[in-house]
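Minutes, methods subgroup
Present: GH (chair), OT, SY

1. OT presented the first of two proteins processed in the latest run. Sequence and structure tokens recorded below as shown on screen.
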Amino acid sequence: MNEGSKLEEIIESVMHLVQGETVLDIGTGFGTVITKLFDNEIKNVTSIDPEAWTFDRIEDTYRDEMSNGRLQLLRSRAENMPFENGAFDTSMAICSMHHVSDTIKGIQEIERVTSGRIILTDWDPTSAGRHNPHSPEDLQAVKDNVMEHARSNGYNFEEKGKWYLAWK
């Protein structure tokens, strides 16, 4: 599998869509999105993950950003976030929607907490076993849900080969 380098390519290719100063990263993982956001001088980043298994490593890397309030890490699920309506200028779920137990509820919650841009990417089923360890069937079910919601709610939708993008 080559998830790491492909993930960095995906993040880099959507960074131009990020708007505003407050960004919500859904699915902290190894902190790859956080790194790219700070590289692009985003002022305020909040990152959520239900498992938070890498928070210790990320806290070590971004100690200064956390102490000055530029980064907040929270253990939370996308389906039920502890934020006020419209709290973020941009919310992004980069290759993490397949980890959300209820895709539609997760997207609706992302919409609730976002005042501006929403960016959703995930792996195409053709990437299974090559760029990620998930089954084609699981990835297809998530893609179908994202596509249906995106097309019904004014999102742009783009096929990108081994991944796809929905944004508005």
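2. SY then presented the second protein from the same run.
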Amino acid sequence: MMQIAIFQGPAKPGEVSSNLGLLEAEAAAAAKAGARLLICPEMFLTGYNIGGARARELAEPADGPSMRRAAEIARQSGIALLYGYPECAPESGVYNAALLIDRNGRTLANARKCHLYGEIDRGMFTPGPGGFASAELDGLRIGILICYDVEFPETVRTLALAGVELVAVPTALMRPFEIVTRAVVPARAYENQVFLAYANRTGSEGEQTYV
């Protein structure tokens, strides 16, 4: 059995240092409550609806300074972390990505969102190549999808056929798409007989109000 914590509180758009401080506090609280994995929303480190120029400015490599700070937080708290961030890949642009780090600070997986949602995503990101990241954590096979990726039946099926037992989804689902949380996400878990953890943003960013 694995106890999972899901953080869905508001983070501060554009304030990476502040959000890393929030990650440290939430990791400590989750670990104290007995959780072995903390899942945070899509683009947790920077905010989601920040525009292409800001996303490029704040993007970091997968092994950049924010990852090193998150790895330190994981080691200090003794809890694995999954969080969203903009990944800078010099050869191909900026990806909407999510990092899974174990309690020892080792990077287990780096997922890249492959289904970009509307102009808000396409104006900021390069689509990921597919393949869908997965890794083993404490004997549990975890697959990672980002937001819109989970709404396609084939993505979760691909992970389930690969032996994944838990699908972890950092997301930024906005109104008026409540049907995704009420119907689509439970259906993906049920039809594939997997656990599914869906960590959404809360509050508002610009014209976006999150579910």
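Chair's summary of item 2: The first strand starts at residue 4 and ends at 6.
Next meeting: continue with the remaining queue.
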